[in-house]
Write a structure and sequence with these properties.
mainly alpha, about 65% helix, about 0% strand
Amino acid sequence: MSFATTERELFNLRRQDEVLFRMAISHLMDVGIRHLTEENVEATCAEIMKEDDSHSFMTNEYKCDIVRLAAKLASFDHIHLLAFIQRHVDYDVGDDVYPASWKPAIISLIDDLMYDRDDDKIYEELSDAGLTDGDIAYFGYDEVIPKEDFDEE
């Protein structure tokens, strides 16, 4: 299934009942978090370590590291984790909204622009270049958005 198809189906589910949709996401996170107990993590790792990884691109130790890091991530508030992922973790799903290859180039350009300049001038130049406040925040430079424009909840 393509991302576009998944996205369309998720929009349809969300449209049916926004509150239900959001609560279901929270429940999904909560169930996953509750199953990442220290006991379950170690039992999972014990099973993983029995597997033959000689022809795998990932070692058994690395698979266990993934499970252990997932358990560590589960210790954070799940809404904060979702917001962090939304704001700072890129996945290229082939939809060309923000190609992953653009981000380093844009960050480099913004870093060059920010050198020895004040936030007001940077914000003005980024806005003049056609970036919205959302774009500026997406690339990690929300500190240059004027406070009166920045919607803090």
